[in-house]
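Ops channel
N.P.: pipeline sanity check, posting one input/output pair.
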């Protein structure tokens, strides 16, 4: 483990807000280059992140090439993820998209997100401070002055570069681009983890798109001896009511038996990649991963890793060439923007639905 949890200093070369895969990947791209880099995380690490924890083949390749072999204690069981089975309505058979068939790839793997994210961060030489929240920032000469909160106190930290890797509801994005979030379609996700039984095959993400059942979309996967049931609804729809309807359907049609509810979680996702609404930052501030809208339709970890690395490399190139860091970054992520759009296009073409635009509350969508 290279990086360590430390006390806050007054000045850094680069501050990264968020210790998810996007933040870890930025830190890794800068590691060993002599920078004073800080990762700020508002939660206590290792932190829970609502996520199926499936590493698609492209994420696996990225991680093994850049971060090394994933420690086995981060693996979930069953380890192998074969792909996605999509159920369009109550009565039709599922449509199977196996990773091996679609891209002539290997299978993906299932991991524990909390362990994965902490391990990814530990691979760089960045300092890591958890339980510390980014509050606001302002330009001050050539530097950026941040206000952060820790232990009930606010502190000022100065930096040359700021990376917003702070996820869906990014405070860095809201601070820099006030008003932008008002145009976003938001989806509320709810999930429960059960001890019990179900007749769905392990090793697949089972995705359900019947609006009457799920509100918008639902998912089931089996992980570490638990059945995980999740659903998401556009703003204004009663997500828990739909969740109960979805569970009733799973009990009736897929023999779901719940012995015990062991956990439940909720989170919000936005529609940025589904409606081609990416935001990359400005000047010496970058938005990476979900903060910038990057997600290949269920495959968000890959996009987070790729755009985080692009931000780190853009900082290095800007210092070497004197070119604008944000313009270098914009060019560097063009391909990933196309990749995200293609993922939604692929879904629409093959399944006939982009669930995020079907009931999005974004302007322009009916
Ligand atoms: C239900 C669900 C299932 C999913 N399943 C998969 C899957 O199986 N495979 C896949 O590839 N993708 C999946 N995704 C998408 C994936 O989880 C995300 O795309 C990915 O986590 C984005 O990484 P990130 O680093 O951009 O943000 P995050 O992983 O969200 O990390 C952001 C971090 O920033 C921190 N933070 C936020 N605000 C502040 C602040 N003000 N100050 C300091 N820290 C802050 C947060 O605590 C968090 O740790 C799923 C998403 C959902 C909602």
């Amino acid at each position: 483990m290279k990086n360590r949890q430390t006390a806050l200093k007054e000045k850094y070369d680069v501050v990264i807000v968020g210790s998810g895969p996007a933040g870890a990947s930025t830190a890794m791209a800068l590691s060993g280059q002599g920078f004073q880099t800080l990762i700020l995380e508002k939660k206590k690490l290792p932190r829970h992140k609502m996520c199926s924890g499936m590493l698609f083949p492209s994420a696996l390749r990225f991680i093994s090439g850049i971060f090394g072999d994933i420690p086995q204690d981060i693996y979930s069981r069953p380890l192998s993820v074969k792909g996605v089975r999509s159920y369009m309505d109550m009565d039709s058979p599922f449509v199977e998209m196996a990773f091996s068939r679609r891209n002539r790839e290997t299978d993906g793997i299932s991991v524990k997100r909390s362990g994965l994210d902490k391990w990814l961060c530990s691979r760089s030489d960045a300092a890591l401070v958890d339980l510390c929240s980014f509050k606001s920032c302002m330009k001050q000469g050539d530097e950026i002055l941040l206000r952060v909160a820790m232990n009930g106190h606010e502190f000022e930290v100065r930096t040359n570069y700021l990376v917003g890797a702070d996820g869906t509801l990014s405070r860095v994005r809201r601070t820099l681009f006030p008003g932008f979030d008002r145009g976003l379609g938001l989806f509320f996700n709810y999930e429960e983890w059960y001890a019990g039984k179900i007749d769905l095959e392990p090793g697949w993400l089972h995705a359900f798109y019947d609006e009457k059942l799920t509100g918008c979309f639902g998912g089931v996967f089996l992980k570490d001896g638990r059945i995980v049931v999740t659903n998401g609804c556009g703003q204004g729809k009663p997500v828990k009511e739909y969740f109960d309807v979805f569970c009733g359907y799973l009990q009736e049609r897929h023999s779901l038996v719940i012995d015990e509810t062991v956990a439940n979680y909720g989170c919000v996702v936005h529609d940025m990649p589904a409606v081609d609404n990416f935001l990359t930052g400005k000047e010496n501030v970058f938005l990476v991963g979900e903060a910038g809208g990057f997600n290949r339709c269920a495959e968000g970890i890959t996009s987070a890793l790729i755009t985080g690395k692009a931000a780190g490399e853009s900082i290095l190139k800007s210092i070497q060439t004197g070119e604008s860091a944000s313009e270098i970054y914009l060019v560097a992520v063009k391909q990933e923007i196309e990749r995200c759009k293609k993922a939604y296009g692929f879904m629409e073409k093959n399944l006939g639905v982009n669930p995020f635009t079907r009931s999005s509350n974004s302007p322009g969508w009916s």
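N.P.: looks fine end to end. The chain has two domains: 11-49+116-183+274-351, 55-110+186-270.
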